[in-house]
Amino acid sequence: MDMTVYAVFFYIIAALIIVSAGMAITRKHMVHAVLYLVVSFLATALLFYLLGAPLLAVFQVIIYAGAIMVLFLFIVMMIRPAPAGERSLTAGRLAAAFGVCGIYVAAALVLAFMAAPEAGRPMAAAAASPFAFGFYLFDRHWLAVEMVSLLLLVALIGALHLGRAGRRNQSERKEPL
Amino acid sequence: MRKWVWIVHSLCTGFYTTLKHIFRGPATELYPEYKRPLPARSRARIILTADPDGRERCVACYLCSAACPVDCISMQAAENQQGRRYAAWFRINFGRCIYCGLCEEACPTSAIQLTPSFEHADRDIMKMVAEKADLQVNHCGKDGNYNFYDHAGVADAFRPKGGHANEAPPVNVRTNMP
Amino acid sequence: MGLWLTGYAILMFKIGVILTGVLLLAAYLVLLERKLLGRFQARIGPNRAGIFGLLQPIADGIKLLAKEDVMPRGAHRRIFLFAPAVVTGTALLTFAVVPMGPDLHLGGRKIPMVVTDMNVGLLYVFAMASLSVYGVVLGGWASDSKYAMLGSIRGAAQMISYELALGLSIVPVVMLAGSLSLVDIVQAQAGRPFVLVQPLAFVIFFVSAMAESKRIPFDLPEAEAELGSGYHTEYSGMRFGMFFLGEYVQIQVLGALTAVFFLGGWRGPFLPGPLWLLAKIVLVVTAMIWIRATLPRFRYDQLMDLGWKFLIPAALINIVITGFVMVGI
Questions:
Q1: pLDDT value at position A177?
Q2: How far, in whole angstroms, is CA C56 from its chain's centroid?
Q3: Which of C120, C156, C157 sits opposite A58 (nearest CB)?
Q4: Are C290 and B18 in contact (CB < 8 Å)?
């Protein structure tokens, strides 16, 4: 088995992802869990970069590690949830979780090999420029992109509406005073 | 629109003001190189002054010690052969002194005075304790010609009865009988 | 193998030079700021260590190194120790994509004057900026102190809000340059710096950059008057020094980015490229110091209003206008 430098890096990063994701779901302390998840996202970004998708890697960092997880952390810091003690992982639950994951991974692998037999070959260094990526995305999948953006717009308007409603209730409550 | 004009105008005024200061030059006086002459009544190191005729002014009345808010003045009163009170020892702990000047205000003889000299910091706190010899000076300080015994009205070896300022000569009570 | 080793040696040399330069410049920017602020306030500023106080940064460094490293009792040890490194590290990493000058030709080898010319360089810069939020948030949270906590919450809210405006303000530049690579963006400004064609984008970028670096008038996360000094209240010694250094490296990063995006990067007549870049960084930093000497701190609602209700809409409108103009041409 020939191990290229890329393969070595791949396995290191993959191990890092699995370990940090595992830590993220087992930590009792919320902030620690969030931080392990951030490490996992950063490692995923590294993996994207290694596979020749720098744009995806950077988006992974900006959006997931940089924005979403900061919001998570923000919320965890603000509301300070009590560390959950009773949610201990029993052997049965652990086995069930591993079983489900194992079936999923096996199914994904089988599907991948069936759909693209060349997936079994060792990885080769590839590179996708932002231009190529953007062209591919907006040329081939423009409908999906538009639908997602519409969904986000709906979410935005919904959030705005909820915020407004809260404020209106508050002002109504204030009026009798 | 007028709001925007106001915003831009006030921003420009602010930036112009700070820019002007760069060309104004610093107003700083560099301390150890240049020592600003302090006013005579600045409150710093305490001295024990002398009378115009050279004798010590302090009568060890304990008023300064009583007035001191941090209790940094202590002394022991004594009396000499001429009947004058003086301090056998007099001690000021400058490590405690807050230079408030209340001792100076309390002093009936203008003996204890604060001077503008302030550079007597030390790393050894025991060196901050000043004894009488360290405090005594041979001049009158701020009060040039005040002599407590000129006004005290108490006869002693130097000033007999009637020898004080604004004091009438003694009258023989037996001569002005009716 | 020999070729590979040479390349590796050159890369390490470049990294070494840039790190040394950046850290040295950060130290002397502190001195510049203190000197200039002194002048703005009719003072002299530090002048005791060396002539004109030129050894002051070194003296400060020695002092910080010699100080005790205090940790509050309730602090989260590892996170507390780790947070200052995030701030400094992400700021330093940003310099990997900043082009310092035109390509050098040395003995038949082309040596680019940049550590790595990423084709997503601009996004990499934003990735680093968004990660630096962690230093502020975790530092404040791990200190287990009310003031630090409030400072870090303010910091997180402010940096997330202004990252948006920062990113959007750069989109017209990317449209004009047609690339996300910082090297290409500098190349695209051969004719005229982008500040002439995109003044609005420049203003938005500059204001958001100041907010990102948490400088007066945007220094709510470390407001001395209300929060002690915000998210780094509990830090002392060189750990505080790391926050401080990180802040000045970040200022330098923003100066360099302003230069690269709007002022033509290393381009300029007569002088070599790195010197021009340095001059432009110092120019931007001087402007920041002038602003610091002039404006008072924003109120929290003013800060959010400026970001969300003015800078982001203005940046969006700017993108649309730029698009129309480009299509029209």
A1: 43
A2: 22
A3: C120
A4: yes
Q: Are strands B129-130 and C101-106 parallel, antiparallel or unpaired?
A: unpaired
Q: In chain C, which residues have their Cβ closer than 8 Å to the Cβ of B30?
A: 44, 47
Q: CB A105: neighbour CB atoms within 10 A?
A: 10
- Express each pLDDT in A108-154 by its tens digit: 888 877 776 665 555 555 667 777 777 888 888 888 989 999 999 99
List all chains that touch chain A, counting a touch as 3 or more CB pairs closer than 8 Å.
C
- The pTM of the full predicted model, rounded to 2 decimals, is 0.78
| Predicted confidence (pLDDT) per residue in B30-73, tens digit | 888 888 889 989 999 999 999 888 888 889 999 999 999 999 99
CA distance C53 to chain A (A): 40
Nearest to B62 by CA among B42, B86, B41: B86
Mean pLDDT for the stretch of residues C269-290: 85
Q: B46-151 belongs to which CATH class?
A: alpha beta
C162, C191 Cβ separation under 8 angstroms = no
Please write the tens of the pLDDT for every residue from C2-12: 777 887 888 88
